[in-house]
Each structure stands twice: as C-alpha cells, then as structure tokens.
Amino acid sequence: MVTYRYLGNSGFKVSEITYGNWITHASQVENDAAVATVHKALDLGITTFDTADVYANTAAEVVLAQALKGQRREGLEIFTKVYFPIGPKGPNDTGLSRKHIFDGIHGSLKRLDVDYVDLYQAHRYDYETPLEETMQAFADIVRQGKALYIGVSEWTAEQLRAGHALATELGFQLISNQPQYSALWRVIEGAVVPTSAELGISQIVWSPMAQGVLSGKYLPGQPAPAGSRATDEKAGAFFIQRFMNDDVLAAVQQLKPIAAEAGLTMPQLAIAWVLQNPNVAAALVGASRPEQLEDSVKASGVVLDADVMTAIDAALGPVAETDPAKTEESSPRARVTG
Q1: CA dihedral for 337, 101, 136, 74, sign (positive or negative)
Q2: What is the pTM of this model?
Q3: What topology is assigned to 4-328 in CATH?
C-alpha cells in the first residue's frame, strides 16, 4: 500500500504515489479502461489524483469525475490546474489573470463535480499578468472555499520566492511546485529544490520515468517499439524526444543490473529514486492499464541505500540534464491565443 507525505509546510497529506491523467484519460485510453485504472489506484491505496483543465481540452477532468463518482469526497485529494487555453483561445482564455483564474476554477469544479479542489495549481508562470493580481485571485478562491491550498508548476526559484512572499502577505499557503524530475532530468536540484525547502514548498514531480525511457524498453540503435509513447503523437512523443538518443539509451541499460540487485523493476527504481529526495512529496504516475499501477506502487516506501544511489549517478550522470535555466524555458513568454 502507498504511504503518505505532508505537502509543503502544511498539515495536508498526499499519497506519495499520485495518479495523474495527463495523456491517458480521454486521449490514449478509452473511458472504461480509464475508470478501471482509477479504481485500481484506489484499491492500491492511492487517494491523490492530479489533472488539469487543458488535459484533453477539459475531457480528462470529466473522465476523472466519472471514475471517482460515489467515492467519499473527504477521503480524496483532488488537484487541478489553470493557465493554458481551452476552447476558442480568445484573448482572456489563457494565462493567470483574475478573469481566467476564476473562469478556470468554476469550469473545473463543474467538470469534476465537486464543491472544492484540494490543490489548485498555476500550470505555468504568466509573464503578462502582474504576480500581485494572480496571487490575489488565488487568495480569494481559497477564502471562498473553492480551493484549500495553492500550488504552481514549473516555476523558477525566483518566481517561487516572490509568489511565496505574496501568499504569506495575503494570508494563504503556497505549498507545492509541480516540475519535471527524474534521474535523467535533474534541473530543479540546483536552485528550485533548495529554495523550496527553505520556503516550505514541496515538489509533486511529473515524468519520474522520463516519459518511459527509464523503463529500459527503448534500446540504443533500435527503433522504438510499435505502440510505445515515442511513436504516438497523442501520447507525448514530443516530450520523449530529448531522451531518444543512443548515449542516453545506452546509459539507461546500465541500470538493469542495479535494479535487479535492489530487487526492483526498472520503473520501480526510477520512481523510488525521485522519492529519495526529501523535498519531493509525490511522484505522479499515469497508467493505461490497471496492472501498470500494481508495479508502480511497489516503489512506495522503498529506501535506496547509498551504494545504489551512487551507482545510478555513475550510470546516468554523464547524460543527465542539470541546467537550472531549463526551468525558465518551461513558461511561455507570451500567451498563446487564437
């Protein structure tokens, strides 16, 4: 069963394996399979679910609501996000303006069929909206009981510090950041993690398996398996391309004996690795089939000894991305409109 961790400097606990439905629900898998996978997550002790209004252009929130129907609301932790455009991409249909944030929360609550979300997240940083406007809107949403806590995604250390200061001034908690993080993508370690630890902000990390590359199924010098994420544009093929070179794939193959010696599968090793970071509260995992979750949750509670961590660093260190500037590249400098 999955263990729990506190999210940021709060009394709020989340399952350290959190179910995310970014590229699965209403996109990669049929609704019946999505519902079955969510039910399997619940059976395995996962009670924390992460989505966003932009996933499948709002449809992912609807599918998640269907899958959670009839569950005790108080026993669930439901996260969603706002920033990216949905619908016609009008001038106010994106970003973190007060208007878009309030339109976003009202739409998400309706689609998720809940009165509140546990965590409402700024999906990116908005360079076109004053940060004071954004944080005031979040403060009002918290006071109105539409969200209990506020988080962000892919913010830099400086943006986190400024946002945290405003949240404190406005009387609410900024408790989380949701960045990409894996043994191959370590860009948050230099600045984001130490700043977050200082401020009482946790990481909810996405792609702990580097889009599946750390599963070891992609082999150097060989084409990607048919039906895999690397061959499926709907399944995030764009995001995996940065890892699809022979140097990276050869380095990943060195992890196989390390995982075997630790008594873990390759996916379990990858998820357990991110959970060794004390600033990480949860690893986001998705699944297109229920049995995939059965493997993933076995990473919960695993403690990797120092020799294993050293061996992983030796294998992947030469090919891992560590440049902190990569975080800043995640947020568009201008809004995407129609």
Answers
A1: negative
A2: 0.94
A3: TIM Barrel (3.20.20)
